[in-house]
Design a protein that fits this description.
It is built from five helices and three strands. The protein is of the alpha/beta class.
């Protein structure tokens, strides 16, 4: 199983495999053609409330990760997570995010859960 994370603003590479946008909002200033996104499972992304709470600096990354994992237990999110896990079992999946620090974002939580 191969899951990797890249910033959506980086140029697509052949090694990306299936490119999955894991942000709830479309990345600012990026056209859909340039992004080359294969899937965009919005129900698997952090809720607007959780995203705003974390970006406001009100809590730690660890608390954000815990809350996000709880959100991923919802039926639709869990189904999408299983779908991405299945894609990864067949080849490389690249999780795309606009986060400036992907290693402390929801994408890192997804990598742990998918691995």
């Amino acid at each position: 199983m191969s899951v990797r994370v890249r910033r959506v603003y980086e140029s697509p590479e052949p090694e990306d495999g299936v490119r999955v946008l894991v942000d709830r909002l479309w990345p600012r200033g990026l056209s859909k053609d340039a992004a080359k996104v294969d899937e965009w499972p919005k129900a698997m992304t952090p809720s607007t409330e959780l995203r705003r709470w974390y970006h406001a600096g009100e809590g730690s990354y660890e608390e954000f990760a815990r809350r996000y994992e709880a959100e991923l237990d919802a039926p639709e999110a869990a189904e999408l997570l299983d779908h991405v896990r299945e894609l990864a079992s067949k080849g490389t999946v690249t999780l795309l995010t606009a986060a400036k620090s992907p290693e402390e974002s929801h994408a890192a939580v997804l990598v742990q859960l998918l691995g």
